[in-house]
Specification:
CATH architecture of the largest domain in chain B: Up-down Bundle
Distance between the termini of chain B: 57 Å
CATH topology of the largest domain in chain B: Four Helix Bundle (Hemerythrin (Met), subunit A)
Radius of gyration of chain A: 23 Å
Number of strands of chain A: 0
Number of domains of chain B: 2
Number of helices of chain A: 17
Strand content of chain B: under 5%
Order of helices and strands of chain A: HHHHHHHHHHHHHHHHH
Largest sheet of chain B: none
Number of strands of chain B: 0
Radius of gyration of chain B: 24 Å
Oligomer: heterodimer
CATH class of chain A: Mainly Alpha
Largest sheet of chain A: none
Distance between the termini of chain A: 10 Å
Chain lengths: 534, 295
């Protein structure tokens, strides 16, 4: 794809050429960084921390739901946990993890010396810890943190929210600033810094998916900013945007939120598609099947993501024509997504597959993400959605696409590139243990949610009817097992960073792409002058 | 191939370490948490929020000054290749695109209120019972001068100050364009004159906008809390005004740099970025004038 495989040398001479200054150390290295690798590491480390914090909140939720009745916490605290778990996982764990991977890998994949605007890159990152400090800090303020769900529907977030909502609003504002700057950096890097000869149709799939993701980010993060701004003025300044008393409409909030929210969910899955499209060919020892159709499918998904938002709102009482339009447009997304699934399977078809850890996660992704896709298709059917709406079926659906989808792809990517970053092979036995524990526990965790959802168990409520007790106990056990398994992941990563078997430049032998031409670990500065792609 | 590539792909400038980003992050943190506290302290004891907010802005301006100074210095010492120039241009372009999307939200709200929520409350379509049960007295009109709960206000007409401001902003867009031509032609005196006129027109616009707000609050009774019409009016014109302020400051900085002898016909990205931004706020104003005031 990149033509780099033609090059028999271990590395490009430029790749190892040192900059005039050496890698700084200590405080300065991380706080004043202009290095895409260090900033990528910061993003990934931050994301892991947030994953653990958000995960701890999920453990509390599952502990409360282990038995019917109120056991451990007040409903208001439960609501805060549900809300902040969602916000942390979406904005603190999944998105920064993908940005971290983009930072590390895009310049290496396109033969660029760094991101296009390295200082802005560091600014984008360092906003995040402050934003989440604000969000998490509000949990400890009098009255508590946000408790209206991550979707902060009006009037829950306006009339009925606590006085600390302003903290949530401004935290989201600066997260948005960070995302927009990060996305601008990614787009400009990809458009402007590809090595000479790397035409668009030679650009690696991960880079392509990130280009389109960055476009979505720039298009919809300002919409989120607008939504939180109106929540702020409605709550504190007497406006009536989401209140019929002044001529506004609470349903309008949902329109604006989901106009952001639907592209947002593709922001969290398109880079995952890119990672899987990178890993599957490597371990199948074949080129990616249907590269062009992958590119076009990604673009189609991005365009369609702007015309499906009302499928989140079928039960709000919209006109029949709108229900039909949004049902069909939503179903249409399964076409490009199906193209992708087909292409991955076709890539594996008759390949010399080896089941190494990244590939295990990639295959699990393909199977389990497809399950999440199918439940999405069920939810797209308007009359059926009237039954499924706001039940655990929806919870099952988006956790299949986000946990076994986005999170599994991130783990696949980390296992795939970790040896390149650290120069060491991770402990394969432990990593495989982590994979199998995660795979089994995640299905115990989320699969029964389909059943309780179809039987009518509502989401976001700390108590439930007795007939759901058995399944909820099973779900909670799966949840605890999945949570504990991730500690093993942390251990594998730390162990690998600290030492291990040395790896060559092309860690996985059959892998293609410029990133495998630089030594492992990748030197602090790479491609000071760009390689030429034949 | 290689030689052609070598000219376009000169060594790309990667800056060394910088402390400005972390200063900027701290500034944004102070601004965000300060703004949050300020809002929460409205009508209560305590002013800690506003101090934090002001500190944040001070740090932000300190950071912008230092950061921009660095960048200008790097630019003037010829560290930037044409490829770097293109990175800056692209970034500005995408930044403006994000701003377009931001304004689109509030225009969307305006259309939604006019086309859907207000007519529905008035009983249009299959909403007769909505009107009957909630506020049977309510009449759907635009501008919404009487809200469903019965609060009244007066609408802002388009004649007078808004029309004058339209002329001012349109004229400033033209003068900025002339300034660009003067820069390309190397006519520095003309360039300076046109830039000064543009900046002054920008600030004149802001002056009249504030006058209009005072008029609205004191004589028309049109406030931020005057129902959806007042809400949209103030959020759209308010955010536009903030963008005009930023644009005018950008033009001012560029003008000062022109007086210091910066920019020539080949190297003037900052100049162009400021003018793009100025044209953008101009276009937003035209949409605003048309949809908020005239229609």
């Amino acid at each position: 794809m990149t033509g780099a495989a033609d090059n028999t040398q271990d590395s490009y001479p430029q790749a190892t050429e040192q900059h005039e200054h050496h890698a700084p150390t200590g405080f300065k290295r991380w706080f004043f960084s202009t290095n895409h690798k260090d900033i990528g590491t910061l993003y990934l480390g931050f994301s892991l921390l947030m994953f653990l914090i958000g995960g701890a909140m999920a453990m509390l939720i599952r502990a409360e739901l282990f038995q019917p009745g109120l056991q451990l916490m007040e409903p208001h605290f439960y609501n805060q946990m549900v809300t902040v778990h969602g916000l942390i996982m979406v904005f603190g764990a999944v998105m920064p993890a993908f940005v971290g991977l983009a930072n590390w890998m895009i310049p290496l994949m396109i033969g660029a010396p760094d991101m296009a605007l390295p200082r802005m890159n560091n600014w984008s990152f360092w906003i995040l810890p402050f934003a989440f400090a604000m969000l998490l800090g509000s949990l400890f303020m009098e009255g508590g943190g946000p408790a209206f769900g991550w979707t902060f529907y009006a009037p829950l977030s306006t009339t009925y929210s606590n006085d600390n909502t302003a903290m949530f609003v401004f935290a989201v504002h600066i997260m948005g600033i960070s995302s927009i700057m990060g996305a601008i950096n990614v787009i400009v890097t990809i458009v402007n810094l590809r090595a000479p000869g790397m035409t668009w149709m030679k650009t690696p799939m991960f880079v392509w998916t990130w280009l389109i993701t960055a476009f979505l980010l720039i298009a919809v993060m300002p919409v989120l900013a607008g939504a939180v701004t109106m929540v702020l003025t409605d709550k504190y300044f007497g406006t009536d945007f989401f209140n019929a008393v002044g001529g506004g409409d609470p349903v309008m909030f949902q329109h604006i939120f989901w106009f952001f929210g639907h592209p947002e969910v593709y922001i969290m899955i398109l880079p995952a598609f890119g990672i899987i499209s990178t890993i599957v060919p490597t371990f199948s020892r074949k080129k990616l099947f249907g590269y062009h159709s992958m590119v076009y499918a990604t673009g189609s998904i991005a365009i369609l993501s702007f015309v499906v938002w009302m499928h989140h709102m079928f039960t709000t009482g919209m006109p029949l024509a709108a229900e039909l339009f949004f049902m069909y447009s939503t179903m249409l997304i399964s076409v490009p997504t199906g193209v992708k699934i087909f292409n991955w399977v076709a890539t594996m078809w008759r390949g010399a597959i080896s089941f190494e850890v990244p590939m295990l996660f990639a295959i699990a992704f393909i199977v389990l993400f497809t399950i999440g896709g199918f439940s999405g298709l069920m939810l797209a059917i308007t009359p059926a959605d009237f039954q499924y709406h706001d039940t655990y079926f929806v919870v099952a659906h988006f956790h299949y696409v986000l946990v076994t989808g986005a999170v599994f792809s991130i783990m696949a990517g980390v296992y795939y590139w970790l040896p390149k970053w650290s120069g060491h092979m991770f402990d394969i036995r432990l990593a495989k243990t982590h994979f199998w524990l995660s795979l089994i526990s995640v299905n115990i965790l989320f699969f029964p949610m389909h059943f309780v959802g179809l039987a009518g168990m509502p989401r976001r409520i700390p108590d439930y009817a007795l007939q759901f007790a058995d399944f909820n106990a099973i779900i909670s056990i799966g949840g605890f097992a999945f949570g504990l398994s991730q500690l093993l992941f942390v251990w594998v990563v730390l162990k690998c960073v600290r030492g291990g078997e040395k790896v060559p430049a092309n860690v996985w032998q059959a892998a293609e792409g410029l990133e495998w031409d630089v030594p492992s670990p990748a030197p602090h500065h790479t491609f000071a002058t760009p390689p030429v792609i034949k | 191939m290689k030689s052609a590539a070598a000219t376009r792909y000169d060594k790309y400038y990667v800056p060394t370490q910088s402390h400005w980003p972390i200063v900027g992050a701290v500034a944004l943190f102070c601004i965000a948490s300060g703004a949050g506290l300020t809002v929460m302290q409205i009508g209560k004891q305590g002013t800690s929020g506003s101090y934090l907010l002001m500190t944040g802005f001070a740090v932000l301006f300190f950071m912008l000054f230092g950061w921009i100074k660095n960048v200008v210095h790097e630019s003037m010492s010829g560290l930037y290749s044409s490829q770097m120039d293109f990175s800056f241009r692209q970034s500005m372009w995408w930044f403006i695109f994000s701003e377009v999307m931001f304004f689109l939200v509030f225009f969307g709200v305006l259309f939604y209120a006019r086309m859907f929520s207000v007519p529905w409350l008035g009983g249009e379509g299959n909403n007769a019972m909505t009107n009957e049960l909630l506020w049977p007295e309510f009449q759907s009109v635009w501008p919404l001068t009487t809200t469903p709960s019965g609060e009244t206000t007066q609408a802002m007409g388009w004649f007078g100050l808004p029309l004058l401001n339209t002329f001012i902003l349109l004229t400033s867009s033209v003068t900025v364009h002339f300034a660009h031509h003067a820069l390309l032609a190397g006519k520095r005196t003309q360039l300076k004159a046109f830039m000064i006129i543009s900046v002054l027109l920008g600030f004149a616009f802001l002056y009249f906008q504030v006058t209009e707000y005072i008029h609205a609050y004191h004589e028309l009774g049109l406030t931020l809390a005057s129902g959806i019409y007042g809400n949209v009016f103030y959020l759209l014109t308010g955010f536009h005004g903030m963008h005009v302020t930023l644009g005018a400051i950008l033009l001012l900085i560029v003008t000062l740099r022109i007086f210091k002898g910066h920019f020539n016909k080949d190297n003037h990205f900052a100049f162009e970025a400021a003018t793009w931004y100025w044209h953008f706020v101009d276009i937003v104003w035209l949409c605003l004038f048309f949809f908020v005031y005239v229609l």
